[in-house]
């Protein structure tokens, strides 16, 4: 492990990420189908690699299973259709190679998505409504954890970032936690991170790390995630 080299790479990437973020327009709520797509990516990525999660969510979108028009027919038929669609091999590009992968836990994901859709669109609590009615990113995250099945604090934070709603919440995934463990001696239990109170304690530690790098939480989080993936792959970590 070479922490100095990793920190140097993070600083370089932070400068690039910060420059790119300056060109992003102010947040506006996207269409509900797009928000549901992002929710699927975040939900699926909790149990599978990110590229596979994106491919699975994109397959559902292509088949029209994330369209608002489908929400009035939510039930066992919808769940079966989602499960059947996710059972088909997914075309995933990783490290420059195209692979055909079968999604693990597809029945569980189908159940989580169907339950989320039912809770959201039969009770007038769409994802768009949550974002528009929340007064802060932390409030939005708390509402998402309560409503979206399969969402913990990490998935909700990632969703808010991908939706363009907030860049100030930490996405404490394995790569970030590995960095905090080695650099700060922080090694929280998984059960603690599943609760908002425990998650926010570790998030506060990460906010201090971000301040030391001199960039926003979201910027350092993303730069660290990319750097740590590469470092592990190249045995630098």
**Proportion of residues in extended strands:** under 5%
Radius of gyration: 18 Å
Low-confidence stretches: none
The helix/strand order is HHHHEEHHHHHHHH
Indicate the structural class: mainly alpha
Summarize the biggest pleated sheet: 2 strands, antiparallel
Quaternary organisation: single chain
Shape: globular
Strand order of the largest sheet: 1-2
Total E-strand runs: 2
Q: Helical percent range? A: 55-70%
Rounded mean pLDDT score: 87
Distance between the termini: 4 Å
The tally of structural domains comes to 2
* Contiguous helical run count: 12
Structure description:
There is one protein chain. This protein is 64% helix and 4% strand. The chain has a two-stranded antiparallel ribbon with strand order 1-2. The chain is mainly alpha-helical. The longest helix is centred in the first third of the chain and has 19 residues, at 3-21. Helix 11 crosses helix 12. It has two domains: 3-24 and 169-233, Endonuclease Iii, domain 2; 32-135.
